[in-house]
UniProtKB/TrEMBL annotation:
Belongs to the short-chain dehydrogenases/reductases (SDR) family. The keyword Chaperone does not apply. GO terms for molecular function: oxidoreductase activity. InterPro entries: KR_dom, NAD(P)-bd_dom_sf, Peroxisomal_Beta-Oxidation, SDR_fam. Keywords: Oxidoreductase. Coiled coil: none annotated. Residues 7-200 form the Ketoreductase domain. It comes from Phytomonospora endophytica. This is NAD(P)-dependent dehydrogenase (Short-subunit alcohol dehydrogenase family).
């Protein structure tokens, strides 16, 4: 008996990396899976239908149930069709996993409109589009839908790690986390739970060249293997899971409940408006946090940092180097 027996799941970006691992894991747990993937390069260029088809075939070859869908989550009509595909193939839709994303990093001064739009269209608009059509399907279900689940995909970038060159990606991922809580509240009455998984340092084509990424573990638990987020995602997708509106990060075997943008230290006065001079004085007493310190802390792997940075100027040098490398990679 699997944890997802009888569940029908649409998983976007399921032709490679984390999504492909999710699709296979879900199928092994008894789900019927729509394997969606447009088959793009990491930066979103190109199309390859064989990517989704190969994963769907590997599932059916292993005795599971799956169909391929080769639409783009960023295309509103395609998003509608992938929901319809699940219903046509398997008679129902219980779970949506919004996993598709692309990355194209550039510093703000180099970032052109197309590169901004491409990343935000897949990661942010794509999550909205697929969830929108699934929610409309569930709203119109008769008898009313019960125990439905959406699992979104965020990233430490946008939530925790301030990584240079990620204007588009960080904004998309922070937006996905924000959407998660909004949708959890809006869809509660329709018995749809909405949660978000935030992977970190999972070995896929997006991260395999990141300095510090450990080599695969041949036998036993691989803490950076593509399947590392699958058990949590399956739990969030399973019937009876009580969680909704949560963002959970996964790094190896550690699962952390994230509370993005929590209330921090504060100052207050209620008798009259603040003056600028008072704010200057009072805010200087608070621990306001330091994005450079946050970056230094997140460098292990994420940007190829080599441990402790002696000074802010050394960190700034490293940032300039990252920006220049992104510019060169984009030009090439
Ligand atoms: N790998 C990590 O460490 C890591 C860290 C943080 C977040 N994430 C997130 O996890 C998710 C999966 O990432 P991954 O590392 O497996 O990446 P990946 O590039 O290996 O897989 C992403 C898949 O999405 C597909 N795709 C791209 N555009 C699409 C579109 N418009 N419609 C449908 N499919 C499309 C691609 O073809 C690709 O197969 C992403 O949301 C990513 O942002 C990954």
């Amino acid at each position: 008996m699997g944890s997802l027996d009888g569940r029908v799941a649409l998983i976007t970006g399921a032709g490679r990396g984390i999504g492909a691992a999710l699709a296979r894991y879900f199928a092994r747990e008894g789900a019927k899976v729509v394997v969606n993937d447009l088959g793009t390069a990491p930066n979103g260029s190109g199309v390859d239908a064989s990517v989704a088809e190969a994963v769907a075939r590997s599932i059916t070859d292993a005795g599971g149930e799956a169909v391929a869908d080769t639409g783009s989550v960023a295309d509103f009509g395609d998003a509608r069709r992938m929901v319809a595909t699940a219903v046509e193939a398997f008679g129902e839709l219980h779970v949506v996993v919004n996993n598709a994303a692309v990355e194209a990093g550039l510093g703000l001064v180099d970032l052109d409109e197309d590169t901004f739009d491409r990343v935000v269209d897949v990661g942010l608009k794509g999550t909205y589009a697929v969830s929108h059509w699934a929610a409309r399907y569930w709203r119109d279900s008769a008898p009313p839908a019960v125990d439905r689940a959406i699992v979104n995909t965020a990233s430490g970038s946008g939530l925790l790690n301030p990584l240079p060159t990620q204007t588009n990606y960080a904004a998309a991922k922070a937006g996905v986390a924000a959407m998660t809580t909004v949708h959890a509240l809006e869809l509660g009455r329709m018995a749809v739970r909405v949660n978000c998984v935030s992977p970190s340092m999972v070995r896929t084509r997006l991260t395999e060249h990141v300095p510090g990424m450990p080599a695969p573990v041949a036998d036993g638990f691989d803490p950076t293997g593509p399947e590392v987020t699958a058990p949590l995602t399956a739990y969030l997708a399973s019937a009876g899971c009580p969680l909704t509106g949560q963002v959970l990060s996964v790094r190896g075997g550690t699962i952390t409940l994230n509370r993005p943008w929590p209330h921090g230290p504060h100052v207050e006065r209620h008798d009259r408006p603040w003056t600028v001079a008072e704010l200057e004085r009072e805010l200087s007493t608070l621990d306001v946090g330091d994005p450079y310190a946050d970056l230094a802390a997140s460098l292990q792997g994420a940007l190829g940092g080599k441990g402790a940075f002696a000074s802010r100027s050394a960190l700034q040098d490293m940032i300039e180097d990252v920006l220049a490398r992104a510019r060169a990679a984009h030009a090439g």
